[in-house]
Amino acid sequence: MTVGLMVTCLNDALFPDTGKAVVRLLRRLGVEVAFPAAQTCCGQPMVNTGYLDEAVPLLRNHLDAFAGCEAIVAPSGSCAGSVRHQHRLVAERANDPGLVRAVEAAPPVYELTEYLVDVLGVTDVGAYFPHRVTYHPTCHSLRMLGVGDRPTRLLKAVRGLRLEELPGAAECCGFGGTFAVKNSETSIAMGNDKARHVRGTGAEVLVAGDNSCLMHIGGLLSRQRSGVRVMHLAEVLARTEPIVSGSERAADDRSAGSAPTVTR
């Protein structure tokens, strides 16, 4: 199966390592990954602020860019949810039956954990991440897509990882796209509540499936000098255990020092 990576605007512009991690992870699992260079914004910002007509050109571009793919995978519950649920609304509003039919015939779009668990049928992806982690379920993945416990099942199978339960996990972090700008005081208050809960877990790393939420919570954790870093789930799942060659192992036996390692 050829899977098209919908990397999302935010990841493309600010968090390219997330897209690279998705490619490494899927290829490790035997999936052929394509990256349609013509992809742009899925149109979610326009739809969420009421500009559905302005989203039509972006919808058409999305359909054209991913036309040759059998499925689409996105490292974002927010953007995956937008394509799955909002594109039809945009097409219907445009009063274009042909566009509606094109949306219905488009390749299915999956949030990353949905694709791993439901399509590939795996929860142990061979990852290694020896750190204390807590997980924040983002609003769109939790409510719009209903990903449920798929992300935590994947995390629990990561070797070396200790997963700490996050109090108030289902509560919104306060980002909400333009909400964070239009209602900044409320957004910050919600984010501070989330950051407080994160600190209370004692985790070294906060993990989520959307970098937009991690950017918001991570900024607050950084300002609070919490020492907690944030990572996208894909980057955790793409990590593997260091490989020590035979010569390095022999050298380690002869020396008390540490042998260099090569990481896949």
TrEMBL record:
<protein>
    <submittedName>
        <fullName>L-lactate dehydrogenase complex protein LldE</fullName>
    </submittedName>
</protein>
<feature type="domain" description="Cysteine-rich">
    <location>
        <begin position="5"/>
        <end position="83"/>
    </location>
</feature>
<dbReference type="Pfam" id="PF02754">
    <property type="entry name" value="CCG"/>
</dbReference>
<dbReference type="GO" id="GO:0005829">
    <property type="term" value="C:cytosol"/>
</dbReference>
<feature type="region of interest" description="Disordered">
    <location>
        <begin position="245"/>
        <end position="264"/>
    </location>
</feature>
<dbReference type="InterPro" id="IPR004017">
    <property type="entry name" value="Cys_rich_dom"/>
</dbReference>
<dbReference type="GO" id="GO:0016491">
    <property type="term" value="F:oxidoreductase activity"/>
</dbReference>
<feature type="domain" description="Cysteine-rich">
    <location>
        <begin position="133"/>
        <end position="217"/>
    </location>
</feature>
